[in-house]
Design goal:
Layout (H helix, E strand, L loop, with lengths): L5 H10 L7 E9 L2 E2 L4 E4 L2 E5 L5 E6 L2 E9 L2 E10 L3 E9 L7 E8 L8 E9 L10 E4 L5 E3 L5 E7 L1 E9 L2 E11 L4 E7 L22 E2 L9 H7 L4 E5 H7 L4 H5 L5 E4 L3 E4 L7 E5 L2 E2 L20 E7 L13 E7 L7 E11 L6 E4 L19 H6 L23 H8 L9 E4 L4 E13 L2 E17 L1 E6 L3 E24 L3 E24 L4 E26 L3 E25 L2 E2 L5 E25 L2 E27 L12 H4 L2 H5 L3 E5 L7 E18 L3 E18 L6 E19 L4 E12 L3 H4 L3 E3 L6 E3 L7 E13 L5 E12 L2 E4 L6 H4 L1 E6 L2 E17 L3 E17 L2 H7 L14 E11 L4 E10 L2 E4 L9 E3 L2 E11 L5 E7 L6 E5 L2 E7 L3 E9 L1
Length: about 1000
C-alpha cells in the first residue's frame, strides 16, 4: 500500500533541510510600555512561537535578508525587514500605542563579541519575601561588573547596564542569598523582574552563595492575556471557514455543539444532533476532535452525534466549508472541527450551578415507565439486562433461521413448551406506561486549572467535570396522515456527565507536549405512547415504546509540535478512543381493536462498541522562491483504524399452547405476567436474523502534500494533493459462509485555491477541489435494523458505491478597520452517484415505516451565503454588537429508473433531503460595560425542507415546515468575576409540523425553556 505514496515521500525528503548557520534574534513587543504576552512571531513566514510574559521571544535568523511579522489574534499587526551578517545578533522592539496602529520600532544589530557593551538598557526589579511583602535594604550586586544597588522602602531598585546577560546576587541579613543567572538586559528597553527571598535557617551557618546558590524563579511584571476571535480565524485561514469560539458559546447559551453550530451560515441541525452543511447531510461531512477523526456512537449513522459534546469542554468550533488536502477526503459539505479547551493562561477555579423550567412540561404529567434506581447517573443498574440463561439458550446461530414453536435458534436444539415458559418468565414484567410529574432540570460544573514555570519549561493543566439532568416532552402531539389519525406523547429523561483533563508542557527547546483525556456520557430514557385509528385495518389501536439508551465516549489524545532551526515545524498526534452505545430491553407492544397482539410485542437488546486508533504527522517549512515570493510547504500522513462490534438480539411472543387468555384487552403486564406465561398463553421466540449482528473494520491511510505560495502583491496560491486509501469490511459471523462484504478503494484528491488581499479591508478567495462520499457501514449492512429516533425499519444495501464530487467555491470578504467583517460566498457542487435515503421496494406499512439507500445518477447543488458581524456602537458605557447570516441553497437530483418507479416520475429533479433552501440567523448583543451586564437576542429561521422521500404521488414527500426560534440571554458579571446568567429559549414556541401532499400530517410543540445559572470564580 505504501508504494503509492513513494513519489510524494521522496518529494518531501528533497524539501527537508535545516539551517545550521544562524544568528540570534530577540523580539520584544510592548503595548503602552507594558509587555504583550501571546503575540505570535513569524520569521520569513514560519511561526516561531508566542511572546512570553515579558513580551519577548528568541529565535534564529538566517544571514542575509529576513522578515519578521507580529500577529495578534491571528491578524498581522506589524512587520519589519532587515539584513544581518554571519557574526551578528539582532534585537527588535515593537512599541505599540494601539494594536491597530503602526508601532515605533527599535532595531539594533551587534556582533557576537559585543555582549556586555554597547547600547544601555534598564533593569528594574522588586524584591519580595515568601509572604509577598516588599524587602527594603536588600543589596543587588551585578556579579559580572561589580555594580550594585540597594532596594528602597518599596523593595525596588534600578540598574542601567549595557546589553548582555548578567548574574545577580541578592543579599539581606535576614534572608538567604539569592543568585539569579542569565538575566538579560536589552538595549533601550526596560526589563522588570521580581525576585523572592527565603528566610535564613535558624541556628545554622550560612552557606556562601557561590558554593550553594538558591536559584529563584524570575517573574516578569505586567502581562497581556490574548483573546482569539472568530473573525481572525476566518480571515487568516486559507480555506473558507466559519467559526465559533468559547466566548460566543458562553454568550449564545448553547449547551452543546449541536445547538451552537446552527448559528453558522448554511448549517442546520437534523434530529437535534446531526449537522447538515450547505444542503449535505452527515455522509458528506467529516468530524474531527482536536484533529483526530471521530468515531460514532450511533450505528445507524456515519456522522457524529454532536449533542454528546458539552459546550463546557469546547474551546472552539470551526466549520471548514471548502476542502483542503490536510482534511479527510469525504469533506464535501464541510468539516466540523471541534477543539477542546487548552491549558489556561493562568490560575482558574470555577464552580457553576443551574436550574431550569420548561413551560408545558416541568410540573406537568408526562408518560414514563418503571426504570432502574441508577438511571439518573446515566447507568442502568442491571434491571434491563438480557437474562443470562435466555441469552445462552437462544444464542446466535449459524445456518437457516428456525422459528419452530418448541425450538431455540440452534439447529437441532429442542426445548419443551414448559422450558420455554420458564425461561420467558425471567424477563422483568415491566410494560405498562404510567404518568409522573416532570421534575426541574438542573446542572452543575466544576473546573480547575493553572500554569507553573518549571526548570523544563512552562507546565499548565486544566480539568473539569459537569453533570446535567433534564426532561423534555412533545406537547399536544398528533398524527393525521392518510393512514392514521392519532394522538401521542413522547417524553424523554436525559442525563449527561463529562470529565475532561488537559496537561501541557511548553519546554525550553521550542517544543510543545499536550495530553488530553476526554470522558463523555449520556443517557436517554424515552417513552412513546400512541392511540389512534388505522385506516388500513379500520380499527382503533394503542401502542407504546419504552426505550433506554446509554452513549459513552472515552478518548486519550497526545499531540505536540517541534520547531527546528526557526523554519521547520513538525507536528504529531496520537489518539485512542472507545465509543459504546447500549440499548438494553427496548420494549414495544400493540393493541388493535382492544386486542393484545403478541407478535407485535418485542424486547430488543443491542450493543455497539467501537475502538479507534489515530496517528497523524504533519511537517512544514517556509523558503523564499524569489525576492518577491515565498512558499509554505507542508506534508502529512494519517492512519485511522476503527473496529466495531454490533450485537442485536430480538425476542417476541406468539400464541402459546394454553389458548387465548380470557381477557385479551387487559394491560400488557397482565397479558405477559408470570402466571400467563406459566399457563402458556404466550410463547417466547427469538426473531433475530443471522445478519442482525456483525463485526466491522474501517481503515483509512492517507498522505498529502500542499504548497502555499505568497506573493508580495497580496496574492496567495494554494495547491495540494491527497492520496487516500479506505477499506470497509463487514463480517456476519452467524451467516452461512460466513458472509463478508468488503469495499476497498483508493482516491487521488486535488485541491486548489487562490486568495487576494486587495488591501487591509478586502479579501477575495476562490477554490476548486474533488472529494468523495463513501457509504457508511449501516448503509451497506445486510442487517435489518431500526432507527432509534423515528423507530422506522432500515434496510441496508451492500451494492452501494462511492460518490465523487467536484466542488467550486468563491467568497468576497470585507474587514472593518475597527473590527468585524462581512462576506458574500457562492458555491456549486456536482455529485456523481449520490447516496440517497429512499423508500424500499415494498408495499403497505413496510413501505411507509421503513427506508433504504440507493445511488442516484447525479445531483447538483448551488448556493449563496451572506455573513456579517460588527460592533455598531461603542460608547463610554454601552456597546452594541450585531451579527447574522443568510443562506440560499438550491439542489436537484437525477434519479435512476428504479428510484423513479418507486418515487414516481414527478420526483425527477427533486431536491436533496434534509436542507432548507433558506436559512437565516441573527444575533444582537447589548453590553453595559460599567456594570458588567450583557443582553443577547438570537434568532434562527429556516424554510420548508424535505424530511422523507415518499412513495409515488399518492404518498408524496414528507416536508418539515419551516419555523423561527427566538432566544434571549442576560448576564451580569460581578467584581470577583463571578456571573449570573438568565436565558429564555424557544420563546416563540412555534409548532414542529410535517406535511404531505399539502396536508399537515404531524405536529407538536416543545415548550419555552427558562434557565438560570450562577458561576463563581474562586
Amino acid at each position: 500500500m505504501f508504494h503509492k505514496f513513494r513519489p510524494l515521500l521522496v518529494a518531501t525528503l528533497l524539501f527537508f533541510s535545516f539551517n545550521v548557520f544562524s544568528a540570534e534574534m530577540l523580539v520584544n513587543v510592548f503595548l503602552n510600555a507594558r509587555p504583550v504576552q501571546g503575540a505570535q512571531v513569524s520569521v520569513n513566514g514560519v511561526n516561531v512561537g508566542a511572546t512570553s510574559e515579558s513580551g519577548s521571544i528568541e529565535a534564529s535568523v538566517n544571514p542575509g535578508k529576513n522578515k519578521v511579522q507580529i500577529s495578534k489574534d491571528l491578524v498581522v499587526i506589524s512587520e519589519y525587514e532587515f539584513s544581518v551578517d554571519d557574526d551578528q545578533n539582532v534585537e527588535i522592539a515593537f512599541k505599540f500605542s494601539e494594536l491597530s496602529e503602526e508601532p515605533e520600532i527599535n532595531f539594533e544589530k551587534y556582533k557576537l563579541d559585543e555582549q556586555g557593551s554597547g547600547a544601555i538598557g534598564i533593569l528594574q526589579g522588586v524584591v519580595l519575601d515568601e509572604q509577598q511583602a516588599r524587602v527594603a535594604n536588600a543589596i543587588i550586586t551585578v556579579e559580572d561588573t561589580g555594580e550594585s544597588a540597594t532596594t528602597n522602602s518599596l523593595g525596588g531598585y534600578i540598574l542601567e547596564l549595557p546589553r548582555g546577560y548578567y548574574t545577580l546576587l541578592i543579599e539581606h541579613p535576614d534572608y538567604r542569598v539569592n543568585r539569579e543567572e542569565d538575566v538579560r538586559v536589552v538595549s533601550n528597553i526596560g526589563v522588570a523582574v521580581t525576585s523572592t527571598l527565603h528566610p535564613r535557617p535558624l541556628n545554622r551557618v550560612q552557606i556562601d552563595a557561590p558554593t550553594m546558590p538558591i536559584i529563584e524563579e524570575t517573574k516578569v511584571l505586567g502581562t497581556f492575556v490574548p483573546t482569539e476571535t472568530t473573525t481572525d480565524m476566518e480571515r487568516m485561514s486559507y480555506a473558507i471557514v466559519d467559526a465559533i469560539d468559547a466566548e460566543q458559546l458562553k454568550r449564545f447559551g448553547d449547551s452543546s455543539v449541536a445547538s451552537a453550530i446552527a448559528r453558522i451560515a448554511g448549517v442546520t441541525i437534523a434530529e437535534d444532533k446531526y449537522a447538515v452543511v450547505r444542503g449535505l447531510d452527515g455522509r458528506y461531512i467529516s468530524s474531527t476532535l482536536n484533529g483526530n477523526l471521530m468515531p460514532t456512537t450511533d450505528p445507524m449513522r456515519r456522522d457524529v452525534q454532536l449533542d454528546l459534546f458539552s459546550a463546557n469542554i469546547i474551546g472552539s468550533i470551526e466549520i471548514q466549508k471548502s476542502y483542503t488536502v490536510d482534511m479527510p477526503g469525504d469533506t464535501t459539505g464541510g468539516s466540523v472541527g471541534m477543539n477542546t479547551k487548552d491549558v489556561p493562561d493562568g490560575y482558574t477555579h470555577q464552580l457553576s450551578v443551574g436550574l431550569g423550567y420548561l413551560d408545558g412540561v416541568t410540573g406537568e404529567d408526562i408518560v414514563t415507565y418503571e426504570g432502574s434506581d441508577s438511571d439518573w447517573l446515566t447507568w442502568d443498574d442491571g434491571l434491563r439486562e438480557l437474562p443470562a440463561e435466555i441469552n445462552e439458550t437462544f444464542q446466535a446461530f449459524v445456518g437457516p433461521n428456525v422459528y419452530s414453536p418448541n425450538t431455540c435458534n440452534i439447529t437441532g436444539c429442542d426445548i419443551t413448551f414448559e422450558e420455554n415458559a420458564r425461561l420467558a418468565q425471567q424477563f422483568p414484567v415491566i410494560y405498562n406506561v404510567k404518568s409522573e410529574s416532570a421534575s426541574l432540570p438542573y446542572n452543575f460544573g466544576y473546573a480547575l486549572g493553572n500554569v507553573h514555570d518549571l526548570s523544563a519549561g512552562e507546565l499548565g493543566y486544566y480539568g473539569s467535570f459537569a453533570y446535567g439532568n433534564k426532561i423534555s416532552n412533545r406537547i399536544d402531539a398528533y398524527i393525521a396522515d392518510e393512514n392514521v389519525s392519532a394522538n401521542y406523547s413522547l417524553s424523554k429523561k436525559s442525563a449527561a456527565m463529562n470529565g475532561y483533563f488537559v496537561i501541557g508542557l511548553e519546554d525550553n527547546f521550542d517544543a510543545n507536549w499536550v495530553s488530553k483525556t476526554i470522558f463523555l456520557r449520556q443517557s436517554d430514557d424515552a417513552t412513546r405512547y400512541e392511540t389512534g385509528f388505522n385506516v388500513d385495518d379500520e380499527n382503533d389501536y394503542e401502542t407504546a415504546t419504552l426505550h433506554w439508551v446509554e452513549r459513552e465516549f472515552i478518548a486519550q489524545q497526545f499531540s505536540g509540535d517541534k520547531l527546528f532551526a526557526g523554519k521547520h515545524d513538525l507536528k504529531w498526534r496520537l489518539g485512542f478512543s472507545e465509543t459504546n452505545m447500549l440499548e438494553p430491553d427496548r420494549r414495544t407492544w400493540t393493541y388493535i381493536g382492544d386486542v393484545f397482539i403478541p407478535t407485535q410485542t418485542e424486547r430488543r437488546f443491542s450493543e455497539l462498541s467501537e475502538n479507534g486508533l489515530d496517528i497523524g504527522l504533519d511537517y512544514g517549512f517556509t523558503f523564499d522562491v524569489t525576492d518577491s515570493a515565498s512558499m509554505d510547504f507542508s506534508s502529512g500522513f494519517l492512519f485511522n483504524n476503527r473496529e466495531r462490534d454490533w450485537y442485536l438480539a430480538r425476542f417476541s411472543f406468539r400464541q402459546g399452547q394454553g389458548g387465548i387468555p380470557d381477557d385479551t384487552s387487559a394491560d400488557p403486564e397482565i397479558q405477559l405476567s408470570t402466571s400467563s406465561l406459566q399457563d402458556q398463553h404466550y410463547q417466547l421466540f427469538k426473531s433475530t436474523t443471522n445478519t442482525d449482528s456483525y463485526t466491522a473494520e474501517v481503515e483509512t491511510t492517507a498522505f498529502y502534500v500542499n504548497t502555499i505560495t505568497h506573493f508580495d502583491n497580496g496574492v496567495s496560491l494554494v495547491a495540494g494533493l491527497r492520496v487516500e486509501d479506505n477499506m470497509q469490511a463487514l463480517l456476519y459471523p452467524y451467516s452461512v459462509g460466513p458472509i463478508e462484504d468488503v469495499l476497498d478503494e483508493s482516491h487521488t484528491l486535488p485541491a486548489f485555491s487562490l486568495s487576494y488581499d486587495l488591501d487591509d479591508a478586502w479579501k477575495f478567495r476562490g477554490s476548486f477541489s474533488q472529494t468523495v462520499s463513501r457509504p457508511g457501514l449501516i448503509e451497506r449492512s445486510r442487517s435489518s435494523s431500526f432507527d432509534s429516533v423515528t423507530y422506522e425499519q432500515i434496510f441496508g444495501n451492500p451494492e452501494l458505491v462511492t460518490a465523487e464530487i467536484d466542488n467550486l467555491d468563491l467568497r468576497i470578504e470585507y474587514y472593518f478597520s475597527d473590527g468585524g467583517s462581512a462576506s458574500f460566498a457562492w458555491f456549486t457542487k456536482t455529485i456523481d452517484n449520490p447516496i440517497e435515503r429512499t423508500v424500499p421496494d415494498a408495499s403497505g406499512s413496510a413501505a411507509r415505516n421503513s427506508y433504504t439507500f440507493r445511488n442516484s445518477l447525479s445531483a447538483d447543488l448551488d448556493g449563496i451565503e451572506l455573513d456579517f458581524n460588527k460592533q455598531i456602537y461603542d460608547g463610554n458605557s454601552w456597546a452594541v454588537l450585531i451579527g447574522g447570516n443568510i443562506a440560499y441553497i438550491d439542489s436537484s437530483v437525477d434519479l435512476d429508473e428504479e428510484s423513479l418507479r418507486l418515487e414516481g416520475d414527478d420526483a425527477q429533479g427533486r431536491e436533496l433531503q434534509g436542507q432548507s433552501p433558506i436559512l437565516v440567523n441573527l444575533q444582537v448583543g447589548i453590553d453595559h460595560v460599567p456594570t458588567g451586564q450583557a443582553f443577547t437576542l438570537l434568532i434562527n429561521s429556516f424554510d420548508d425542507k424535505m424530511y422523507k422521500v415518499g412513495r409515488g404521488s399518492d404518498f408524496g414527500n414528507e416536508i418539515e415546515l419551516g419555523r423561527t426560534s427566538l432566544d434571549l440571554s442576560y448576564e451580569k458579571e460581578f467584581e470577583n468575576a463571578s456571573k449570573i446568567t438568565f436565558r429564555i429559549k424557544n420563546l416563540l414556541d412555534e409548532n414542529v409540523e410535517y406535511s404531505q401532499n399539502g396536508n399537515t400530517i404531524e405536529g407538536y410543540s416543545r415548550g419555552t425553556e427558562f434557565t438560570a445559572k450562577y458561576t463563581h470564580n474562586f
